[in-house]
Design goal:
Length: about 375
């Protein structure tokens, strides 16, 4: 009898929704956000990234590490030499935000110090984009003293990146380079990078502790909501639990939880929406999944992360890199897909595999804990 009642209720709700549609009363996520005091244009990943990069004083940041960088730049400001400070952290931990904050704060206290910013992927294989590094060289050549930021080093061809460092080092007598790296890329290329630019020290950015994560989440909500929206602490704590304090992860999870709240018609602030969003983003149990990976799978994932092509890597390329037979590589790739760590895309007759963005930081943490790369 209960089952029949449920079926009838489902039919009634479907009919009511159908009739609302006939009357033009269609539920809309953007309208739902507005009704709950959230600006739909601001509840957007790109908007939030741009907002906090332009307003770094409003972010929760890695305060101790900021002070450490400030000390080194202060030291550099009184001396003549070329210094290098690599900033290392997993994907989404806030390296770009950190660099923007350093630049912004320095501009406030020492506006006369010249600063230049570049993305590492601007320095692609010399011959294809060689003009860009030579433009940068000409930009820097006439400067007496300059802070140079090179972000996202993991997306540059290593040989071109090292050559770019060499060019910069040769044209500027007084330069302070701040570069950003993911752990596996720094571990793999540190020796070559330091042969050109020895590191003064390494700045390691860790995920936020719970207190700072909740503070950051409340700041994001404040930016998105014009009138201010109070969400239950349990809701925010659940987001932190899945994200482990990685800013990119808890931001994505917050936005996905809002959408799940709308789709599933839940109460705003319900932890059920966080659980549903975490499952969709493959965050549910990801730490244990990554911890339980075999050494072979970790090696495959490491190669995939080091293969810095945004499309991904083909199985045949992994076969060559790993010196394993195709069936073994295919077996492990299928497993990694089933575990929700890897995705694939068909392009013509070739399939390209890449690590899912949401799971990257957890995999990179595992690789970093191994301490070295043994591909």
């Amino acid at each position: 009898m209960l089952q029949m009642d449920d079926e009838q209720d489902k039919l009634n709700r479907f009919q009511e929704a159908f009739e609302r549609g006939q009357e033009g009363k269609i539920s809309n996520y953007e309208d739902w956000l507005q009704d709950h005091g959230i600006d739909c244009k601001k509840a957007d990943d790109e908007y939030l990234q741009q907002y906090f990069q332009e307003n770094p004083e409003k972010t929760v940041n890695h305060e101790e590490e900021l002070e450490e960088v400030a000390e080194y730049i202060g030291f550099f400001s009184q001396r003549s030499n070329v210094y290098h400070l690599p900033v290392i952290g997993v994907t989404g931990v806030g390296k770009t935000q950190f660099i923007r904050t350093v630049s912004n704060l320095l501009g406030h206290i020492e506006p006369e110090i010249e600063q230049r910013s570049y993305r590492a992927d601007e320095f692609l294989e010399l011959g294809k984009e060689e003009e860009r590094i030579f433009e940068a060289r000409d930009e820097l050549r006439d400067l007496d003293k300059v802070i140079v930021y090179v972000d996202d080093c993991e997306w540059a061809e290593s040989e071109s990146l090292i050559e770019s460092f060499r060019i910069i080092e040769n044209v500027v007598d007084d330069a302070f380079l701040v570069t950003s790296w993911t752990p596996e890329y720094w571990i793999h290329h540190r020796e070559n990078a330091e042969a050109v630019l020895p590191s003064s020290t390494e700045i390691h950015l860790s995920p936020f502790p719970e207190k700072d994560s909740l503070k950051a989440l409340n700041q994001i909500i404040k930016v998105m909501s014009d009138d201010g929206v109070d969400l239950p602490e349990a809701f925010l704590e659940e987001i932190y639990r899945y994200s482990t304090g990685i800013p990119r992860v808890f931001t994505d999870l917050l936005l996905a939880s809002l959408r799940e709240t709308f789709v599933k018609e839940l109460e705003l602030g319900s932890t059920d929406s966080v659980n549903a969003a975490a499952e969709k983003l493959n965050l549910d149990g990801v730490e244990k999944t990554v911890y339980d990976l075999s050494d072979t799978k970790v090696t495959i994932l490491t190669h995939m992360l080091l293969w810095n092509h945004r499309d991904g890597i083909r199985p045949s390329q992994l076969v060559d890199l790993l010196d394993r037979d195709k069936s073994t590589v295919s077996y492990h790739l299928k497993d990694l897909q089933t575990e929700g760590l890897v995705e694939s895309e068909k392009q013509g007759r070739s399939a390209y595999y890449r690590v899912k963005n949401q799971t990257k930081p957890f995999i990179q943490t595992r690789i970093a804990q191994n301490g070295e790369y043994n591909g």
